[in-house]
Automatic annotation (TrEMBL):
GO biological process, one term: regulation of cell shape
Taxonomic superkingdom: Bacteria
Penicillin-binding protein transpeptidase domain boundaries: 454-744
SUPFAM superfamilies for this protein: beta-lactamase/transpeptidase-like, Lysozyme-like
Gene source species: Sphingomonas oleivorans
UniProt similarity note: In the C-terminal section; belongs to the transpeptidase family.
Subcellular localization, as worded in the UniProt entry: Cell inner membrane
Protein name: Penicillin-binding protein 1A
Catalytic activity: Preferential cleavage: (Ac)2-L-Lys-D-Ala-|-D-Ala. Also transpeptidation of peptidyl-alanyl moieties that are N-acyl substituents of D-alanine; [GlcNAc-(1->4)-Mur2Ac(oyl-L-Ala-gamma-D-Glu-L-Lys-D-Ala-D-Ala)](n)-di-trans,octa-cis-undecaprenyl diphosphate + beta-D-GlcNAc-(1->4)-Mur2Ac(oyl-L-Ala-gamma-D-Glu-L-Lys-D-Ala-D-Ala)-di-trans,octa-cis-undecaprenyl diphosphate = [GlcNAc-(1->4)-Mur2Ac(oyl-L-Ala-gamma-D-Glu-L-Lys-D-Ala-D-Ala)](n+1)-di-trans,octa-cis-undecaprenyl diphosphate + di-trans,octa-cis-undecaprenyl diphosphate + H(+)
Domain Penicillin-binding protein OB-like: 355-452
Classification via Pfam families: PCB_OB, Transgly, Transpeptidase
C-alpha cells in the first residue's frame, strides 16, 4: 500500500505552516533581530551596488589564466652559448617547485602570514588599511595597504598602482576571482616571478642575480631575508644608500620567520649577525653580456624589432617582453679575433700621431663619478678605462674613475706629443678632461682613442652566416656601424668582378692586355679622361692574371672597355655589390658599397658563384620553444627521423641560384690566390694555407681594403675616416688593411682544417707562363674555354727548367691599338692567331 504525500489542505501540514509563521513573527518581534536583518539587507544592497559600479568591468579570470609575464629576449651564439639579452624588465620565470621552501617562508612572513588560510583578503589587515587611509587623508602620507599577496597580484598584473579607495575595492573583488581560479601554489608562483625588487629586477631569481650574483637555490638565509624586505619599497632598503634601514627590516623578517616556526632562534641569531653581502650594482650585468655588447648585437636587435616590434603593444613576440630565444650566427672566438685585429690595426695606424685631445669635459665638483659614467666613452680594450682629471700639480695628475676610485697619472705617462702641436700631452691636460688611460705598475698612462675608423665582417662562404662583425673601435663611443652602414669606395678590391665579367665574355687568365696609356673622350665640356696606374708607370703587354695580381689600373679599364661596362655593372649587381652606372671609372672601384656587401660577394666567389644571403639570425623560438623564424627554409627529408639506418646523413637540397658561372667564379678565386702568393697581399703568404683575396686603395687614399680568405672563412676589412680625407700617401690596402686580416687569421684560422678551394665539375688545369700567356704544359679543353684553369708557370723541381719567351701575339698586342679604338676584326684576328698557335680559347 503506497502512502500519498499530504496536500496543502491537509490539517497536519496547515498546522505546521501556521506554527512556523508564528515562530518567525515572534523572532522578528525582537528589535535586535530587526536591526540585524536590516543591516544584512543594507550590506547585501551595498555589495550589489559595489559590484555594479566596480566589479562588472574587471578583467576576467581567463585573462589571468592566460597571463604571461614580460620576459627578456635571450640570444645564443652559434654553439648555443648564452651571450646576451634584450629586456626592459630583467626577469627569469621559475616554476613553483624551483623556489626554495625557505624563500617562500620568508616572503610569507614578510608579506602575508595567513596566505594559505584566507580567501583572498585578510579582513583585519584590510580594515586597518581602510582606517589608516581615512585618518591620513590630506596629510600627504600614504596609508599602509594591508594587502594580501593575492591583492598585490591583482594590483600589479591587472589594475595598476592608482592610490584610491576605488582601486582598493576593485582589488578586493579581483582577489576573490583569483582565489577561485588559481591554486595557492599558482598564485605564489605568479607573485614570486613578477614582483619588482629594485635594480631593474622583476621576480626573485632575477633579484638574486642582481643583488648577490647567485641563483635562488644558492642563497643563504640572510640573503633570502634581505630579498623579502624589498617588495614594500626597494629604494628604501638600497644597500648603497640605506644599509642600516635594510638591516633593520631584514631583522624584522627573520623575527617573523622564527615566530611562524620556519627557523630556530639560533638560525635567526646567526643570520642577523651576517652582513648584507650584496654586490655592487655595476657588477650585476653578466660578464658575457658586457663582452658582446657591440655592433653585432645592435644589428640583431634592429632586425628583431623590424620583424616583431619592440614592446607589448607590438604583439606577443615583441623583443623586450616576448621571451624569445634567438640562435645567432655569432662565433665568440671569431668575434674576439675580429675585434682585437681591427682595434689593433686602428691603433697601429694612429701610432706616432700623438694625443688627439680630451674626449669630453665634465664638472669635477660634487658627484663627478656619476657624471663621468654618463659620458659613455668607448675605450675598446678591457685594460683601458675612462677617467677624468681631478687635479694637476707639478709632474703628477690625479685621475678619477666611474666607480669613485682614483689614481695617479705621472708626466712620463703622458709624454706623447699633442697632435699638431708637438709639446707633450701632459702640458695640455686640464681638470675636467675626460681621457682614456691604461694601468702600468702602480700608475696610469695616457692613451688616445683613434680618430680613424673602419669595419670588418667575417662570413661562412657555405651558408652566408655572419660569424663576426665589428663596426668601429668601440660601439659605446658611437653606434654607427661602419660594417653595414658606411658607404665607401672599394677601390681595387672591386677589380675581380671586372675580370669576372671579362672571363664571362671571352677572355681567359692568359689573355694579353696592354698595360699602357688609356684615355677616353667624355664630352666637349669635359674633354678626354686619361687613367693611370697607382705607381704611375706601365709594364706593356701582360696577361690578365698578372694584371689582377699586380692590381694594374690601366689593364682593368682596358678589360672593362673591351668587355663593356654594362656587363661589368650587371655582374656587380648580380653579386649584390651595388647598382652602378656604366662608366669606366666604376671599374676601378669608384662606386660605393659596404663591407658586408663586398664580403658577401667574395664569399659567393668562394661558393662557386652560388648566391648567398648574409644572415645573423639562424632561428627564433617563442617562449614555449616553437620555432617562429628560420633563416634556412630548405626542406630536409629525413632530418627529423627517429631512427637512423646507417646510410649517409640527410642534408637539405641546394636551392641557391647561380649568381655567376661556377667556372668563372673558380677562375677568379684561382687568380686571387696569385694575389696572395705574388701580388699585393704577399704579407699573407706565410699563413701556410690556400688563401685568396684582393687589396684595395681608393683615390686619396681615403679608404684601404682587404677582402678574401679561405675556402671555409671569408672576411673583409676597410679603414678610413668617417669624414673621408687622405690617410697619407703611404697607406695602401696591402700595408694597412691586409695586416689586420693577417692578425685575425692567425687566431681565427689557427685550428681550422687546411683545405684547397673546391673546383666545379669540368675544370682542367693548364699551366702557362703568367707574363707571356704561353702554355707550358697541360692539354687545352676543346669544348668550353672556361674549363681551363690557367695555372702560373712555376714548375716543380721534377720538371726541366727552360726559358719562356714572348711569342708573336705579345709583340702584335704591343703594336696594335686597344680599347674603344680597337676594331672587332682586330680582336678576332688575335683570337684566330692564338688558336693557330695552340693558345688558350
Amino acid at each position: 500500500m503506497v502512502e500519498s504525500s499530504p496536500s496543502l489542505d491537509s490539517p497536519s501540514l496547515r498546522q505546521r505552516l501556521i506554527a512556523l509563521r508564528e515562530a518567525v513573527r515572534k523572532i522578528f518581534a525582537r528589535r535586535w533581530v530587526r536591526w540585524l536583518a536590516a543591516f544584512a539587507g543594507l550590506l547585501l544592497f551595498g555589495w550589489l551596488i559595489l559590484w555594479l559600479l566596480f566589479a562588472r568591468d574587471l578583467p576576467s579570470t581567463d585573462r589571468l589564466l592566460a597571463y604571461e609575464p614580460p620576459l627578456p629576449t635571450n640570444l645564443r651564439a652559434i654553439d648555443g652559448t648564452p651571450i646576451y639579452s634584450f629586456a626592459r624588465e630583467r626577469r627569469v620565470e621559475l616554476a613553483y617547485d624551483e623556489f626554495p621552501p625557505q624563500l617562500i617562508h620568508a616572503f610569507l612572513s614578510a608579506e602575508d602570514k595567513t596566505f594559505f588560510t584566507h580567501g583572498g583578503i585578510d579582513y583585519p589587515a584590510f580594515a586597518n588599511g581602510v582606517f589608516e587611509y581615512f585618518t591620513k587623508m590630506g596629510s600627504g602620507e600614504r596609508a599602509r595597504g594591508g594587502s594580501t599577496i593575492t591583492q598585490q597580484i591583482a594590483k600589479n598584473l591587472l589594475l595598476g598602482d592608482e592610490y584610491s579607495p576605488t582601486r582598493k575595492i576593485k582589488e578586493a573583488f579581483l582577489a576573490f576571482r583569483i582565489e577561485n581560479a588559481l591554486t595557492k601554489q599558482q598564485i605564489l608562483e605568479l607573485y614570486l616571478n613578477q614582483i619588482f625588487l629594485g635594480r631593474n629586477a622583476y621576480g626573485v631569481q632575477s633579484a638574486a642575480r642582481a643583488y648577490f650574483g647567485k641563483d635562488v637555490g644558492d642563497l643563504t638565509l640572510p640573503e633570502i631575508a634581505y630579498l623579502a624586505t624589498l617588495p614594500k619599497a626597494p629604494s628604501n632598503y638600497s644597500p648603497e644608500r640605506h644599509a642600516d634601514r635594510a638591516l633593520t627590516r631584514r631583522a624584522y623578517v627573520l623575527r617573523e620567520m622564527q615566530n611562524n616556526g620556519y627557523i630556530s632562534a639560533a638560525q635567526r641569531a646567526e643570520a642577523e649577525a651576517a652582513p648584507l653581502g650584496t654586490i655592487r650594482r655595476s657588477d650585476t650585468r653578466r660578464d658575457a653580456e658586457r663582452r658582446y655588447d657591440g655592433y653585432f648585437m645592435e644589428e640583431v636587435r634592429r632586425e628583431l624589432i623590424g620583424r616583431y616590434g619592440e614592446t607589448d603593444a607590438s604583439g606577443p613576440h615583441s623583443v623586450y617582453s616576448g621571451g624569445l630565444w634567438v640562435r645567432t650566427s655569432l662565433d665568440p672566438a671569431v668575434q674576439k679575433a675580429t675585434e682585437d685585429a681591427l682595434r689593433d690595426g686602428l691603433v697601429r695606424y694612429e701610432a706616432g700621431r700623438g694625443w688627439s685631445g680630451a674626449a669630453a669635459r665634465i664638472d669635477t665638483r660634487g658627484d663627478w663619478a656619476q657624471r663621468l659614467a654618463t659620458v659613455n666613452l668607448g675605450v675598446g680594450y678591457d685594460d683601458w678605462r675612462a677617467a677624468v682629471v681631478l687635479a694637476k700639480q707639478g709632474e703628477r695628475a690625479e685621475v678619477g674613475f666611474a666607480d669613485g676610485s682614483t689614481g695617479a697619472l705621472p708626466s712620463w705617462g703622458a709624454a706623447m706629443p699633442r697632435r699638431g702641436i708637438g709639446d707633450t700631452a701632459f702640458q695640455y691636460l686640464k681638470v675636467g678632461d675626460v681621457i682614456a688611460v691604461k694601468k702600468q705598475g702602480a700608475d696610469w698612462v695616457l692613451r688616445t682613442i683613434p680618430n680613424v675608423s673602419g669595419g670588418m665582417v667575417v662570413e661562412n662562404p657555405h651558408t652566408g652566416q655572419i660569424l663576426a662583425m665589428q663596426g668601429g673601435f668601440d660601439a659605446r663611443g658611437a653606434s654607427f656601424n661602419r660594417a653595414t652602414q658606411a658607404m665607401r669606395q672599394p677601390g681595387s678590391s672591386f677589380k675581380p668582378f671586372v675580370y669576372a665579367a671579362a672571363l664571362d665574355n671571352g677572355m681567359t687568365p692568359a689573355s694579353i692586355i696592354v698595360d699602357g696609356p688609356f684615355c677616353v673622350y667624355q664630352s666637349a665640356l669635359l674633354g678626354r679622361k686619361c687613367f693611370r696606374n697607382f705607381s704611375g708607370g706601365n709594364a706593356g703587354s701582360q696577361t690578365l692574371r698578372w694584371g689582377v695580381e699586380q692590381s694594374r689600373n690601366l689593364m682593368t679599364v682596358r678589360a672593362a672597355s673591351q668587355t663593356g661596362m654594362k656587363k661589368v655593372v650587371a655582374t656587380a649587381k648580380a653579386m649584390g655589390i651595388g647598382d652602378y652606372p656604366p662608366l669606366l671609372a666604376y671599374s676601378l672601384g669608384a662606386g660605393e658599397t659596404t663591407v658586408l656587401k663586398l664580403t658577401n660577394a667574395y664569399a659567393m666567389l668562394a661558393n662557386n658563384g652560388r648566391e648567398l644571403k648574409p644572415t645573423m639570425i639562424d632561428y627564433v623560438q617563442d617562449r614555449h620553444g616553437k620555432v617562429i623564424f628560420r633563416a634556412d627554409t630548405r626542406p630536409c627529408e629525413g632530418c627529423n627521423a627517429r631512427d637512423w639506418n646507417g646510410r649517409p646523413m640527410p642534408r637539405p637540397r641546394m636551392r641557391a641560384r647561380q649568381a655567376m658561372d661556377p667556372m668563372t667564379a673558380y677562375q677568379v678565386v684561382h687568380i686571387l690566390e696569385g694575389v696572395v702568393q705574388r701580388g699585393t697581399a704577399t704579407i699573407l703568404r706565410d699563413l701556410g694555407r690556400p688563401l685568396f683575396g684582393k687589396t684595395g686603395t681608393s683615390t686619396g687614399p681615403t679608404n684601404v681594403w682587404f677582402v678574401g680568405g679561405s675556402a671555409d672563412l671569408v672576411a673583409g676589412v676597410y679603414l678610413g675616416y668617417d669624414q673621408p680625407r687622405s690617410l697619407g700617401g703611404y697607406a695602401q690596402g696591402g700595408t694597412v688593411a691586409a695586416p689586420i686580416f693577417k692578425q685575425f687569421a692567425q687566431v681565427a684560422m689557427k685550428d681550422m682544417e687546411v683545405v684547397p678551394f673546391r673546383a666545379p665539375p669540368g675544370i682542367r688545369m693548364v699551366r702557362i707562363d703568367r707574363r707571356s700567356g704561353r702554355r707550358v704544359f697541360g692539354a687545352w679543353p676543346t669544348s668550353d674555354p672556361k674549363a681551363a684553369v690557367i695555372w702560373e708557370a712555376f714548375k716543380p723541381e721534377s720538371e726541366p727548367r727552360r726559358t719562356i719567351r714572348k711569342d708573336e701575339i705579345v709583340r702584335r698586342a704591343e703594336r696594335e691599338p686597344t680599347g674603344p679604338a680597337r676594331s672587332r676584326a682586330a680582336r678576332d684576328s688575335d683570337s684566330d692567331f692564338l688558336q693557330s698557335q695552340g693558345g688558350i680559347y
